[in-house]
Amino acid sequence: MSNSNNTTYIVDLRSDTVTKPTKAMKHAMVNSALGDDVYGEDPTVNALESKVATLLGKQAALFVPSGTMANLIAVMVHCNKRGSEAFAGHLSHIYKYEQGGASHLGGVLLSTLQNKPDGTFEIAELKKRLRGSDLHDPISSMVAIENTHNVCGGKVLPQDWVDELGEFCTDHGLALHMDGARLLDAAAYSGCPAARLVRPCHSVSICFSKGLSAPVGSALAGSYHFIEQARRMRKMLGGGMRQAGVVAAAAVVALDEVAPQLHYSHKRARVLATTIQGLFLPTFSVDVSGLHTNIVLVRVAANSPLLAEVVLQRLAQVCLAETQGDCKTPNDEGVIVKAVCFDSKTIRFTLHHDINDEDLWLAIMKIIYVFKELDAANPFNINNK
Ligand SMILES: Cc1ncc(COP(=O)(O)O)c(C=O)c1O
User: Fold this and answer.
1) In terms of domains, do 230 and 367 share one?
2) pLDDT score of 216
3) I need a surface site. Which of 8, 82, 208, 253 has the fewest CB within 10 A?
4) Which residues carry this modification: N6-(pyridoxal phosphate)lysine (predicted)?
């Protein structure tokens, strides 16, 4: 990939959003037919929306600027009565990272269900928490799930659970929305067509700007009626884009060119995870058996004095000894690895389309070097939990 400055080579594993558009995307962006999409006249957007609807087995789809807007629109359409309630996992993107937009802009009460490590929650818990017709209660209207689940480490939701939840929602008059920002990663991992994964869902969002390398854009899919309402909401939220084919063109290429390659990032994630596990350092652990897709979570031992943030700072520095040892590029540069932390003890490395085998190798050398150094410098009593 990766950005290089005068003295360092940067391997950016912060997110699968850091990718640049491919050559084919740039070509399509310059050469695609355009029109005013608010009038429904952009042929490239129309083509993208039909393609997404077919891919997801839904009647219709809508191109929107971001995953956050796609999720917000879904909540606002499903919860269109004042006093509505939407359920989401406590680790979901909708709850944790969207500024409470559902409440802020939609007037919707977001209620959380305890996520389990696999990204699911107890359907029995949802059942208990559903409101009735008592006049003190809000109106339970929808449930949101996330596939793959980001904070749970890119996990693919067990399909039996999604199917059971879908039945439950239908039986109880609830809409089921899937935040499928990384749905195509779930399809690649499970070998199941995306349309099958989302069959029980009334609406689904996907992002072209995550692992798929497009510069911008998401889509929302559902029934004709749902998308008609969603189109109105998108306009109200300022998401009605005019000659949006410029960016939709890249999204079409993302589906054709990059989606079939997602499994390469999954393989590289596995190489990284197994290497870290193979170091057998008491300070750092990875759940390799729970690794499904492109996100590797490294846990810093709870009783170690070390914090995830300090690990990130160290990965972003190059010391002299590194450039004389394994942690250097063929040009004798040092290597910086960028990552993010989810909390004080969890580091996230995300593999993506712009990371090739050489980048991975350099990142691994650097991570091994830094992890060994920090493990030695931060001794702790493993038994003292
Ligand atoms: C699971 C998930 N949903 C939604 C979003 C929001 O997407 P956007 O950044 O396009 O608003 C993200 C962003 O990283 C995400 O990881």
Assistant:
1) no
2) 97
3) 82
4) 210
